[in-house]
């Protein structure tokens, strides 16, 4: 936006706020400074129509009424009741959870909207602080490029058209959807709606949408069925396990399988050979069971049912027979990926409309404003100099807004006067209010938000909806968050919270996410982080002598020790602006050749690069500190994905598949000779 255009639009807002009647377009042309630049009537009309549209898009309501009683010509004004933020009073505990709700979006696409909402609330005297309660860091990611347009379509009740690739499909298919809402489940976003082409209700994972999403602006608005429960619709997509398999695993290995087993029967060590334990493993479909067992390589073997045993053997044989040593493509950035990019700066006009009420009557400094809007201090001073040129029609020195530019430049102090027309905070936009309400729903879904805290969340949610209006409430209801936690993880989280509050050290038996290993850790807790449907303990690990994040579902045992935590001086919490996954120059690069049916790997894992292949598949390059983890991933993929570089890792995967295949080729039931196990059954 050009400086002159911003100046004109700001003068228009001040004019329409200060008038008591509707002004005609011609009155506005003669009154508002800036419209004199339009040399013709048609040029003025185009300029004025653009300004009205852009103001409305920014959440500034322009009323239309009768401007001339004799001619009936339309007139315009801005009603203060529609423009100004409704009064909202929060108790200290309510202000605390509202700050946490805004923090949930800090590193996501709605981070700017949530931050601006807090800025406006603070302008109205509401004591909210996004930095409060550092012990808990709830975060929601919106990495999917489709999130923005789908959010807008849900907000505006508009249909959308996009291409969608289901798992196992080689080509994406066109979909035309009437979106009812979006749901975050276990860290993934889904849109629920009516599929016009299939005449049925459907659920689509946003990460599987290919290319651009087109929002259809013509035709009737989308009608959402009364009483539809979005979260229940998404939950119906996950089938419950219906079968059980008998699986042998080596002692002290295959911990991921052990954690989900219905029963574990320990084996006996024979001579110098390691013992084999027997698991009863629930599963929904054979393909999923095959992947999980194959991932463990020679450390796991399916005993029965026979169909599953044969399927695992075929899966491993496919890995052994696959070609190796083929070079992967040159790594290229993922299309549209801009790691670490923060939200764009707010529009200059909206910045000024927020800045005036915030600065009036407060001690506000240039660096503070620059940090909030992501600007340089020089740009903030430039904004203030523009503000100095605006004011009430007449534009005499007594009408213009007063700004002490010398103070801003020399001491950084922002002093604004003679701006009573803009002294009240601008109302929350739909995106701003809904981002806070949805953030509250994330907190509500956490086990910590029970009892009194749950009541606080409900109170502040009701107050926020009341201040923002019905439309915002409808949008917030259409965006839901589901956090699924089993009782064991919930209990671990409660004990972590207690240790944090008491300032006590903890001892963990922890299963590594990269390696199939269990380690013993002494940890001084620093906080809890909730991201992608998972809860992490952040703390100083004495084993690694550094700050680490521990996923609570991988904590096998937790003991609160009877002495105080002592985080070394100068050690702080991690910067999570780029996500939980911390990249390093020491990481290895591993390239996988993925068939079209395995493209889901690029959805579930952060890829350094993704390059399309001629057959509809992709070459995906992952950065990892533990190549052995990618090797296990390749074992689970079978013929659908293979390591192409480094070749040494590809050879390791093939060798491990040969070792795992051997028992299946030898035949026979490995339990028939084990009377100890059979008697235990």
Please summarize what this structure is.
It is built from 23 helices and 27 strands.
Walk me through what this model shows.
By secondary structure, the protein is α+β, with helices and mostly antiparallel strands. 37% of the residues lie in helices and 23% in strands. It has 23 helices and 27 strands. The strands form 7 sheets. Strands 4, 19, 20, 21, 22 and 23 form a 6-stranded mixed sheet that branches. Strands 5, 6, 7, 8, 9 and 18 form a 6-stranded mixed sheet that branches. It has a 4-stranded antiparallel sheet with strand order 11-12-10-13. Helix 5 packs across helix 17, helix 6 (111-123) packs across helix 16 and helix 16 runs antiparallel to helix 17. It is elongated. The model is unreliable at 331-346 and 673-681 (pLDDT under 50).
Number of helices: 23
Head-to-tail CA distance between termini: 74 Å
Beta percentage is: 15-25%
**Helical residue percent band:** 25-40%
Shape: elongated
Quaternary class: single chain
Low-confidence stretches: 331-346, 673-681
Which class do the helix and strand fractions yield? alpha+beta
Overall average residue pLDDT? 84
The Rg value, from CA coordinates, equals: 30 Å
What is the number of E strands? Answer: 27
Major beta sheet, specifics? 6 strands, mixed
Annotation keywords:
681 residues, 6-stranded mixed sheet, 23 helices, disordered C terminus, alpha+beta, 23% strand, elongated
């Amino acid at each position: 936006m050009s400086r002159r255009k911003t100046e004109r639009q700001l003068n228009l807002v001040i004019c329409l706020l200060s008038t008591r009647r509707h002004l005609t377009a011609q009155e506005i042309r003669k009154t508002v400074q800036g419209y004199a630049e339009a040399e013709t009537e048609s040029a003025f009309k185009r300029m004025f129509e653009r300004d009205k549209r852009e103001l409305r898009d920014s959440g500034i309501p322009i009323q239309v009424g009768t401007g001339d009683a004799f001619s009936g010509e339309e007139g315009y004004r801005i009603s203060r009741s529609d423009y100004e933020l409704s009064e909202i009073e929060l108790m200290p505990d309510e202000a605390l959870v509202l700050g946490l709700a805004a923090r949930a979006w800090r590193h996501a696409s709605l981070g700017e909207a949530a931050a601006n909402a807090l800025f406006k609330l603070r302008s109205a005297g509401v004591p909210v602080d996004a930095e409060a309660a550092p012990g808990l860091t709830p975060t929601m990611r919106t990495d999917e490029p489709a999130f923005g347009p789908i959010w807008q379509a849900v907000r505006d009740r508009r249909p959308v058209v996009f291409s969608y690739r289901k798992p196992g499909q080689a080509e994406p298919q066109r979909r035309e959807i009437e979106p009812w809402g979006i749901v975050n489940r276990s860290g993934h976003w889904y849109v629920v709606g009516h599929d016009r082409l299939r005449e049925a209700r459907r659920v689509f994972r946003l990460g599987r949408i290919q290319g651009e999403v087109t929002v259809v602006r013509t035709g009737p608005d989308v009608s959402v069925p009364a009483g539809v429960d979005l979260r229940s619709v998404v939950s119906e997509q996950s089938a419950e396990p219906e079968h059980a398999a008998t699986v042998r695993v080596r002692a002290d290995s295959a911990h991921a399988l052990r954690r989900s087993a219905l029963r574990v029967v320990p084996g006996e060590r024979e001579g110098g050979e390691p013992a084999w334990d027997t698991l009863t493993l629930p599963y929904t479909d054979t393909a999923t069971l095959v992947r999980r067992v194959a991932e463990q390589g020679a450390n796991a073997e399916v005993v029965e049912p026979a169909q599953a045993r044969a399927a695992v053997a075929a899966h491993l044989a496919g890995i052994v027979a696959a070609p190796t040593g083929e070079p992967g493509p040159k790594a290229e950035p993922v299309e549209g990926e801009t790691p670490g990019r923060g939200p764009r700066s707010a529009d200059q006009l909206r910045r000024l409309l927020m800045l005036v009420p915030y600065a009036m009557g407060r001690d506000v400094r240039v660096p503070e404003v620059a940090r909030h809007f992501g600007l340089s201090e020089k740009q903030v001073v430039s904004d203030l100099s523009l503000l100095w040129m605006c004011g009430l029609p007449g534009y005499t020195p007594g009408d213009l807004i007063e700004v002490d530019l010398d103070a801003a430049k020399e001491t950084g102090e922002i002093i604004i006067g003679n701006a009573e027309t803009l002294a009240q905070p601008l109302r929350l936009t739909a995106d701003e209010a809904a981002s806070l309400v949805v953030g509250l729903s994330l907190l509500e879904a956490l086990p910590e938000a029970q009892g009194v805290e749950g009541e606080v969340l409900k109170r502040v949610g009701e107050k926020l909806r009341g201040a923002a209006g019905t439309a915002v409430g409808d949008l917030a209801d259409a965006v839901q968050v589901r956090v699924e936690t089993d009782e064991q993880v919930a209990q671990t989280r409660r004990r972590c919270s207690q240790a944090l509050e008491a300032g006590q050290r903890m001892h963990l038996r922890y299963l590594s996410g990269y390696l199939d290993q269990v380690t013993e850790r002494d940890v001084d807790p620093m906080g809890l982080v909730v991201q992608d449907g998972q809860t992490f303990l952040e703390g100083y690990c004495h084993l690694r002598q550094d700050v680490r994040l521990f996923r609570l579902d991988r904590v096998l045992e937790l003991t609160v020790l009877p002495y105080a935590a002592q985080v070394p001086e100068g050690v702080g919490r991690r910067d999570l602006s780029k996500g939980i996954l911390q990249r390093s120059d020491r990481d290895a690069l591993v390239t996988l050749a993925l068939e079209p049916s395995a493209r889901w790997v690029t959805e579930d894992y952060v890829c350094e690069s993704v390059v399309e292949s001629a057959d509809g598949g992709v070459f995906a390059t992952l950065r990892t500190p533990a190549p052995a983890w990618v090797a296990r991933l390749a074992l689970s993929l079978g013929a659908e994905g293979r390591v192409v570089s480094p070749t040494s890792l590809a050879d390791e995967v093939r060798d491990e598949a040969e070792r795992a295949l051997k028992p299946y080729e030898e035949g026979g039931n490995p339990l028939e000779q084990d009377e100890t196990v059979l008697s235990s059954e």
